[in-house]
Amino acid sequence: MCRLPQCVGNDPHEANRPRVRTCNPLTAVEFEAGYRFMVPVQTIATVPCELCENQNVEIVATQDRDASPLQVVLCPQCGLVWNDPRPSAEALAAYYREEYRQDYKGTLEPKPRHTLRAARVAVERCRQLRDNLPRGEAVLDLGAGGGEVVYVLRQLGFPASGIEPNAGYARFARERLQVPVTSGSWQEASVEPGSLSAVTLFHVMEHLDSPLQAMHLIRGWLRTGGLLWIEVPNVEAVCQAPSHRFHRAHLYNFNDATLGALGRQAGFEVVRTFTSADGGNVTAVLRKTGIPATTAPSLTGNANHIRGIIQAHTLLRHCLSAAPFIRPLRKLRQRVSETIGLLGQKTPKEILDRAIQEAFRSGVLSVVIDLSELAAAAI
């Protein structure tokens, strides 16, 4: 059960004051003990739309994937989807620094199975990045986790480094993989302006409370022509059960249109966007231009498009599709493959090295994996 605090606006004490726009400040323990409540009906967002600053919103969900109360809203002007209300920036920073990995991994640093899973995903991600960037160019992985992407990139000849808010995972990267991963948030990062050729955010952007501000900051780190590579869960995905579309730690939910629009508004041009094989993730490859940031682009019809997908993705339709049968089989195959891959005593570096050798020796991953299935779990 996620313990992300619930409150309104930027003042955690406001949750105790009677207001129309409020959220019951019950803790996860109290909720599990038997409390049940509905998130209040709300049509005026406490957090304006990150893209168009609209506050007139539609409620598209009142529960997260764990059946805990969570209000998720849709901007009818551009189609951006986000959690509202949400905890303060300070509470969020503390949560990701101290609790997030424990909540979702049950550990303070990666276990061998986590390392193997992340290694295989990192190899495929780095393969794609290598095809778009000359060797020797500086790369920063923001939200580096246990440092797997940084490790693989360095093995491929890129002077890569990382930033990771969780202290335990950042320490694991430095001590066990011996790669330069700094502990801290994106706001705390000290990066020389124009010093990077690429910045990667793999399943990070959806966790940021100010994604547009983060992209403006990242733009300053990149040289002109530098790449920003973003992968996030796809709000249009129908490969999971309808009740699993939203969860508390994903503050924003994007599709290719809103992700690209956010990049253009921050001064990037969209090189391309693409989705994973099952539609679960969407990736945007953006390039820094010499043109200043633009105003919010028009996304006419995008809200109707997303609303239609969410409304049409019912439990009955999901159960009648192939997804409920394919996903368990993929997870079983993944589990068996990981068990075989972990036979014998292996250090984290040995696990990474073997994944790199298997992938680049044959030109394809030697084990069958579905990147869309593994990506969120690896982060």
Topology:
Layout: H1 28-32, E1 58-63, E2 69-74, E3 81-83, H2 89-98, H3 100-105, H4 112-130, E4 139-142, H5 148-155, E5 160-164, H6 167-175, E6 181-183, E7 196-202, H7 211-221, E8 222-233, E9 252-253, H8 256-265, E10 268-275, E11 281-288, H9 302-312, H10 315-320, H11 323-341, H12 348-362, H13 371-378
Could you list some keywords that capture this structure?
alpha/beta; 2 domains; 13 helices; four-stranded antiparallel beta sheet; globular; seven-stranded mixed beta sheet; 379 residues; Rossmann fold; disordered C terminus
Mean pLDDT: 83
Main β sheet profile? 7 strands, mixed
Low-confidence stretches: 6-40, 364-379
CATH architecture of the largest domain: 3-Layer(aba) Sandwich
- What is the helix/strand order? HEEEHHHEHEHEEHEEHEEHHHHH
Explain how this protein is built.
This protein has 379 residues and is α/β, with parallel strands linked by helices. The chain has helices at 28-32, 89-98, 100-105, 112-130, 148-155, 167-175, 211-221, 256-265, 302-312, 315-320, 323-341, 348-362, 371-378; strands at 58-63, 69-74, 81-83, 139-142, 160-164, 181-183, 196-202, 222-233, 252-253, 268-275, 281-288. It has two domains: 12-89, no CATH class; 101-291 and 307-313, 3-Layer(aba) Sandwich (Rossmann fold), CATH 3.40.50.150. The chain has 13 helices and eleven strands. The strands form two sheets. A seven-stranded mixed beta sheet has the order 6-5-4-7-8-11-10, with helices on both faces. A four-stranded antiparallel beta sheet has the order 1-2-3-9, covered by helices on one side. Helix 4 packs across helix 5, helix 4 (112-130) runs parallel beside helix 12 (348-362) and helix 4 (112-130) crosses helix 13. The longest helix is centred in the first third of the chain and has 19 residues, at 112-130.
